[in-house]
Amino acid sequence: MALSKIFTMRFYARNTGFFLVLFYFFFGIVPGGQLLSYHYTLIKGFTGSLDFLAIVCVIWLLYNLKCIAFIINVLSTKEHTFLYGTLGILEGAAKWRTWLWLHVTLYAPVLIYSLVSATIAVRLHAYTAAFVIGLFNIIMITAPLWFYSHKMGHPGTVSFLARWQQWFNKTVRKPIWSFYGYELLNNNIRSFFIAKVVAAVVVIITCSLMGGKYDERFLLVGGLICVLAQSVLVYHHQRFDDLYLSMLPQLPIPLWKRYVQICILYLILLAPESILLVYKTWQSATLMHWLMLILTGLSLMTLFRSLLYLPNIDQDKYFRWVLIIIVIILFMGLARWYWYGILLLQSLALVIFCYRYYRYEAPLEKVD
Residue 242, Cβ neighbours under 10 Å: how many? Predict the structure, then answer.
């Protein structure tokens, strides 16, 4: 009971907002009479497609990592050092049962839903999907036990990930333009992975809905949704520069080179979904269509970045402009004016960037 208060109850209390959003997504957006059919269709969808199932497993993995991180953080706090004198003396089966019970109480939402999914997969004769779900969840509830046991045996040690990050940051020389990318991977990895998972789901759903009738405009709509989901990363890029790279304009770097560096950074950030898009449309799309989709996403993100150099652009105004631009490009895409749209986006982004870069002044609240 004491361990439940320390770990389980505190975990769910601390993540109340997260679970409310999750509950609304799974149970609140559909009428009560259609709830079972909604979940049955959802489960049928990802058990019938290994690509979709892989995305679902990644989401489950991220939740499991959240559970593991919570337990490790609790064990690392000073007020819970007494746990090393209680849990640390457990040996053999008692130790593994205790850690298994603690982890399962946190991982229970995913475990229950995955068991239901595996059962439905068996009834639909999707035996491969059922096997993958079963094996995946066995790993998810057994592998963390080793981390907990290692933590109890080595209190005060730094995690492998933290040690790797320290070594990487000290050893690898990073160009200034890539600092925000490393910031996402080190200190804002949750937002980064959420954006990437959403983009991957959109790409898979778009390609699945398109079926055998290939239409590049359909892919363009999916690509626009992917960029919209990642526009928040562009917004935080400006905030990061304001806080940590305010002296960047003073460096002797040509303006054109600064613009190219931003394009390279966003091209790298768009690489995961671009690779997935190429993989999913390998047999139907052409090289020009791939190039069009990638350049459209890159041009949108570059223009979003340039907009943040305009005066008096707050969060509300930024996302309002993002939606307006997305809608304009959507209509241009439906008319197959793809390259005109790319040219328009790049021209606006370059003009705004060149005119406003050295005139931009960070708001005082950001600097403070």
Answer: 17
**How many Cβ atoms are within 10 Å of 332's Cβ, its own excluded?**
19
In the three-class reduction of DSSP (H, G, I as helix; E, B as strand; rest coil), residue 65 is classed as helix
Report CA-CA distances (Å) from 260 to 32, 36, 133, 224, 267: 52, 50, 44, 22, 10
Summarised one tens digit per residue, pLDDT across range 269-312 is 999 889 988 888 887 888 898 999 999 999 999 999 999 999 88
- Contact (Cβ atoms closer than 8 angstroms) between residue 214 and residue 281: yes
As given in the structure block, the two tokens for residue 298 are: 């890159």
Give residue 141's identity as a one-letter amino acid code: I
Compute the Cα dihedral for 3, 4, 8, 11 and give only its sign: negative
Question: In sequence order, which residues have a C-beta less than 8 Å from that of residue 99 and are 6 or more positions away?
Answer: 144, 145, 148, 149
Segment 197-217 shows an average pLDDT of 79
Q: How far apart are CA 117 and CA 123, in angstroms?
A: 10
8 Å CB contact between 221 and 333: yes
Q: DSSP readout, 111-176? A: HHHHHHHHHHHHHTT-HHHHHHHHHHHHHHHHHHHHHHHHHHHSTTPPPHHHHHHHHHHHHS---G
List phi, psi (to 5°) of 154. -135, 65
The answer to whether 128 touches 85, Cβ cutoff 8 Å, is no
Phi-psi region of 133 (alpha: psi -120 to 50; beta: other; left: phi over 0): alpha
Residue 229 φ/ψ, nearest 5 degrees:
-65, -25
To which H or E segment does residue 22 belong?
A: helix 16-23
